[in-house]
Design a protein that fits this description.
Blueprint (H helix, E strand, L loop, with lengths): L3 H15 L3 H12 L4 E2 L1 H11 L1 H15 L1 H4 L6 E7 L15 E10 L4 H67 L5 H35 L10 E2 L11 H11 L1 H22 L4 E10 L6 E9 L8 H35 L1
Parallel strand pairs: 1-4
Antiparallel strand pairs: 2-3, 3-5, 5-6
């Protein structure tokens, strides 16, 4: 039977041999990356605000909605018409025929009073909602970037500690080998040191992989190549929370972009329901016509018409019901968002 000490030594030696050689090259690479220049959180936040495509897209969408406000409240385009009755080629009048004439006219559709104002208000509220959506996207990207920055900061700290531990273990290994050569210790102490070093190298490899993931996340948020060097996160001052839970909840209810979006959507649905109610009233059209003929030169005509919602039970009434349901849905979503915001504040405050 083999001695138990021999078995232990063999197992320790076998574990050391299992350590892949590429681990050492990975660690060397990580140690080199730690020497890159420092980067501050403020620099990254500024770069993200300027370059992140999601932020830029939401800003452009908000600007487009704002630009459409005047168009929503504008009158429909007028209709200009020209009509001639007489000879076809050339288009001349037939002398002696009282029905032969040229007609010039213009017609303007005028919606029932209040409709255009409501449409402009709806466009204005929608633009406000888009602006709050942009703020929400901006905050989301900044929060993701901060989280990635802090993750990378902790990874660098872990690598620093592991490298120091590796150095200490290597010193211990050298001492153990020296003592083993002069017979002051057993080979088991040397193998134990080598096993501990291999464990540290494995942890360094894991941290190196996490580091590359965090750097890729930051580069993605900054719209850069995932291989772009990020740098070592600089030291930062921990912010102090100077508000109570009640104060934070009140601030969130007053300033949360997510809640503002839902409040704007509720207001837009409210205006939409009012507009649907006004669709029961007729729209008008005014026209002016000038007649020119040989028999009656220089005749003028005025026209006024109304578009009557005759089939309101098939069109306007269902539209009004749908608008009211959409308003009720928006109010429920607003209440749900308000409850979610309160919960998120409490969860973040207590953890």
């Amino acid at each position: 039977m083999l001695p138990s000490n021999f078995i232990r030594l063999f197992l320790l030696w076998f574990i050391c041999m299992l350590t892949p050689m590429h681990v050492f090259s990975q660690v060397t690479g990580e140690q080199g990356l730690l020497e890159t220049k420092e980067i501050t959180l403020e620099e990254l936040l500024k770069a993200a605000a300027e370059n992140n495509p999601e932020i830029k897209s939401s800003a452009q969408t908000a600007a487009a909605s704002k630009a459409m406000i005047p168009a929503a409240g504008a009158l429909p385009d007028p209709t200009v018409k020209f009509e001639t009755m007489g000879n076809l080629i050339p288009p001349t009048l037939m002398k002696g025929d009282p029905s032969s004439a040229r007609t010039y006219g213009i017609e303007q559709e005028i919606p029932f009073p209040g409709k255009l104002g409501l449409k402009e208000n709806i466009a204005s509220v929608e633009a406000e909602s888009r602006q709050w959506s942009h703020e929400l996207v901006h905050l989301k990207v900044m929060a993701e970037l901060k989280q990635a920055f802090f993750d990378l900061y902790l990874i660098h700290k872990s690598i620093d500690i592991l490298l120091k531990n590796e150095e200490l273990l290597k010193n211990f290994e050298d001492i153990a080998e020296s003592r083993y050569k002069v017979g002051q210790t057993t080979q088991q102490d040397v193998l134990k040191a080598q096993v501990e070093i291999s464990k540290v190298l494995d942890r360094l490899l894991v941290q190196g992989q996490k580091k590359r993931v965090a750097e890729a996340k930051i580069n993605n948020l900054l719209y850069r190549s995932t291989e772009t060097p990020v740098g070592k996160p600089a030291e930062f001052k921990k912010a102090e929370l100077a508000y109570s839970l009640e104060e934070l909840t009140q601030l969130a209810r007053s300033n949360s972009p997510a809640l503002k979006v839902q409040e704007s959507e509720t207001e837009r649905r409210q205006q939409g329901a009012e507009l649907a109610g006004k669709e029961f009233y007729p729209d008008f059209a005014l026209g002016f016509t000038y007649y020119d003929s040989d028999q009656n030169p220089g005749m003028y005509g005025l026209m006024m018409s109304a578009k009557v919602p005759l089939y309101f039970w098939r069109k306007q009434q269902p539209e009004l019901e749908a608008a009211r349901l959409n308003l009720s849905s928006a109010r429920s979503m607003r209440d749900n968002t308000s409850s979610t915001v309160r919960y998120q504040v409490k969860e973040a405050y207590t953890t």
